[in-house]
UniProtKB/TrEMBL annotation:
Belongs to the class-II pyridoxal-phosphate-dependent aminotransferase family. MalY/PatB cystathionine beta-lyase subfamily. Residues 103-384 form the Aminotransferase class I/classII large domain. It holds the Pfam family Aminotran_1_2. The lineage of its organism: Bacteria, Bacillati, Actinomycetota, Actinomycetes, Kitasatosporales. This is cysteine-S-conjugate beta-lyase. InterPro entries: Aminotransferase_I/II_large, Class-II_PLP-Dep_Aminotrans, PyrdxlP-dep_Trfase, PyrdxlP-dep_Trfase_major, PyrdxlP-dep_Trfase_small. It is an enzyme of class 4 (lyase). Signal peptide: none annotated. Keywords: Aminotransferase, Lyase, Pyridoxal phosphate, Transferase. Its cofactor is pyridoxal 5'-phosphate. Its EC number is 4.4.1.13. GO terms for molecular function: cysteine-S-conjugate beta-lyase activity; pyridoxal phosphate binding; transaminase activity.
């Protein structure tokens, strides 16, 4: 099999040089000194998708910079969900725009739980889950994934039973697809989650921000589409797949039995998203399919490239290419670099990765690498990591 990365002229991941990227002022490019190669926070090294750029430019030319209103974003999302995931159940009448996914998560927690209540998460998991849940006055309870990065039904049931016994209104904050492991949960896994949640009276809030980003041949399954998930709530956004984190907007979606909960969302929450954000996210979902496909092909190439590079330069690192997200979860325990290898790679290799331990239980000895970059930068990053160890 030919594993040489394909040269795709249209691939947005090939378009920007390191010099161009270094002119950016966002978190990825301005947190570390200039000599550090940043492959950490979930921003992509791509130019803006053309349909998104056009929608924004038109809005700016018109001075269309007021407050957002209406359901265009949810309608575009419903269309995308039908086309990409074969899911026709996204009911625009049961949606609300929210400022971003994490603020949306906090608002959903306020709707279905109270201060001091338990929020179950599958560690290792997206670091801000710990902070946002804590700041919302809820208590994080970990139900670790298996070594293979899958939801462990036994552990989940034991955890649900424990939080149920603790009283209050427990919630399960599902990350689907899962950050940092890139795990794409199957329909059967999600159905068993829904069954357990129902059995133990645990409400489910699903963070599905990475949903559009799947490997070739894989299909994302929306949590609300599985049997038993009718009282679930989901947060979706074009932010990760089209690199729009700076253009704030996301959508909260309620299942048929959670519509009344979502209807209690205070009106001011939906004043939080930026109008330009809503315009950008809507254009991405409605017209950005070809651009997304080019990025997804580039990410497939990068997963193969990373596999090759690690085999050649860092054979001690364990990496199983994921089926979703643009994140690579690297098990560096065999390198004996301690609990936080990212610190060593940064200090000795001048490459910034995300620290495993910050993702909670199961994160020690790991790093998260952001694959959404050019093959050149990815190659240089692995070379630097190897030089830090050798
Ligand atoms: C799982 C997950 N949820 C939420 C976010 C942040 O989303 P937002 O900027 O819309 O709050 C990220 C960003 O990487 C993420 O990976």
């Amino acid at each position: 099999m030919d594993t040489t990365p394909r040269e795709t002229p249209l691939n947005p991941l090939h378009r920007l040089t390191l010099e161009q990227l270094r002119r950016r002022t966002s978190m990825k490019w301005r947190t570390y000194p200039r000599d550090v190669l940043p492959l950490w926070v979930a921003e992509m090294d791509v130019p803006l998708a053309e349909p998104v750029a056009r929608a924004l430019t038109d809005a700016v030319a018109l001075g269309d910079t007021g407050y957002p209103v209406g359901t265009a974003y949810a309608e575009a999302l419903a269309g995308f969900a039908g086309k990409r995931w074969g899911w026709e159940g996204l009911e625009v009448g049961r949606t609300a725009i929210v400022p971003d996914v994490m603020m949306g998560v906090v608002e959903m927690l306020k709707l279905v739980s109270g201060p001091g209540d338990a929020v179950v998460v599958n560690s290792p998991v997206y670091t801000p889950f710990y902070q946002f849940v804590g700041n919302a006055d809820r208590v994080v309870v970990e139900a670790p994934l298996t070594e293979e990065g899958r939801i462990d039904p036994g552990v989940l049931e034991e955890t649900f039973s424990r939080v149920r016994a603790g009283g209050g209104r427990p919630v399960y904050l599902l990350c689907s697809p899962h950050n940092p492991t890139g795990t794409l949960h199957t329909a059967a896994e999600l159905a068993s989650v829904a069954e357990l949640a129902r059995a133990y009276g645990v409400r489910v809030v699903a963070d599905e921000i990475h949903a559009p980003i799947v490997a070739a041949g894989a299909r994302f399954v929306p949590y609300l589409s599985v049997p038993g998930a009718r009282d679930g709530l989901s947060l979706m956004s074009a932010s990760k797949a089209w690199n729009l984190a700076g253009l704030k907007a996301a959508v909260a979606v309620a299942g048929p039995e959670a519509g009344a909960d979502l209807a209690r969302l205070p009106e001011e929450v939906s004043h939080g998203p930026s109008h330009l954000g809503v315009i950008a996210h809507t254009a991405a979902l409605r017209d950005g399919g070809d651009w997304l496909d080019a990025v997804l092909a580039g990410l497939d190439d990068n997963r193969r490239l990373l596999t090759r590079l690690l085999a050649e330069h860092l054979p001690g690192v364990r990496y199983a290419p994921a089926r979703a997200t643009y994140l690579a979860w690297l098990d560096c325990r065999a390198l004996d670099l301690g609990d936080d290898p990212a610190g060593v790679f940064l200090e000795r290799g001048r490459v910034a990765l995300s620290s495993g331990p910050a993702f909670g239980t199961g994160g020690a000895g790991h790093v998260r690498l952001n694959l959404a970059t050019s093959p050149e930068i990815l190659t240089e990053a692995v070379r630097r990591m190897a030089s830090a160890v050798g």
